[in-house]
Specification:
The structure holds two protein chains of two kinds. By secondary structure, chain A is an alpha/beta fold. Chain A is built from 15 helices and ten strands. The longest helix of chain A has 18 residues. Chain A is globular, with a radius of gyration of 21 Å. Classes of the chains: A alpha/beta, B alpha+beta.
Amino acid sequence: MNELQAVTTASEPPVSRKLHAIGRRLGTPVSGTFELTSGCNFNCRMCYIHDGGAKDPQAGELTAAQWLSIGKEAADAGTVFLLLTGGEPLLRRDFAEIYTGLKKLGMMISVNTNGSLITGDTAALFEKNPPMRLNISLYADTPEGYRRQCGADAYENVVSNIRRMKAAGVQIKLNVSFTEYNADRFREIAALVRELDLHCQTSVYMYPPVRRTSPTAAQGRLSPEAAAKLRVQWDLMCGKTPTPESAEELRKLLRVSECDDGNARGEGVRCRAGHTAYWIDTKGQMMMCGMVPLPVGSVPEEGFLSCWQKTRALMQTVRMPKKCTNCSLRPYCCVCPAACFAETGDFSTAPAYLCEMSSCIEQELLRLNKGEKAIEAE
Amino acid sequence: MKLSEDFICRKVCGETLLMPIGEKTKEFNGIFTLSETGALLIDAIVKGENADGAAALLAEQFAVDIEIARQDTLAFFEQLQQYGILLDDDAAD
């Protein structure tokens, strides 16, 4: 007999993929995000949620007891994987209470953090009782880069904390987002990532700041052309640029038969949002995705299951633009319902930014295919 | 025999999961998934059965010879003990 299968968490464990696959059929909320605070000790101009200046957790944000109560309901409903995020979640003085309480419920916890506050008691907590994974945003490779991008003197501290957590055996993923403030240093940032020898996820596409309470134009976002060139440059460095041939294969796979009919609707939600995943904001409102500010209800007031059912119902109404389904640029495009909504305020309108960006990626790849040198990212 | 308080047993999407909680995650930061027979044996432990009682349940539920069920049960319990999931009744958590 083989009754016991051990699964470690260096990458997404197979059991996660299995539970999400089963959960998709059953409508089980296998994973969720708890947005503990919108406060942050950084002041990144491109942040999608933090308004700048508000360093402390804000009035109206849920208490530790409320988060633990929601956690209990979520666990009873089937949640296994939970992401704690912000703002900067480690700013909360009661973070340890929330974190340890949720772990006791049998949750596999990941934490999104800027890495600057993993010191003292918090560092000791993670060393003694590690999360499934720490997702640490790496914004720059120099102190000046951190000042420029984040308005914070944090570089040395962040890198030191990353090294300490790594030495303690804590699983870490670095998140690197490129903006106007750090794109010129992408090679140096790549060198730092290599030196730290950690898994890294990069993004050149920046969502508009849809969650800021005061309307602010997206600041620091790369132009579609600059984002495209950087995407190709980065992928080239990683040796994973798709060739036109492989892109054509992918394009065929992406065609969805139900959408080939001219009368059919566009694609629905392909990712886990609303199928097996949810997002709860700082005030306890559930959304299908953090980038889609359409709360379906208040979890503390209506209960978790009621909000989850509403989230699923909303997800089932979502349709992407029909033009995206068979678009020849799709293999290069990161379009999704959330991106459509964040860019245009409508799920079924194609986001011009991404259309332009994917067109530029294709042009750049075609140029490369002809043996021309990749154009330097601006 | 008893389950260690450092682990929690959960049933999600029809799967039986054994998960470390608290500082036990320092030693094992993952999830144990149990087969149908493993889940039955864990349930037996939670209900207070000893190895013989658990083996009898296994033999009955899966229509296997009691001696084979006993051997498999003891092998499974040994695995659990190696991970610190299963403790003797008088062991402190």
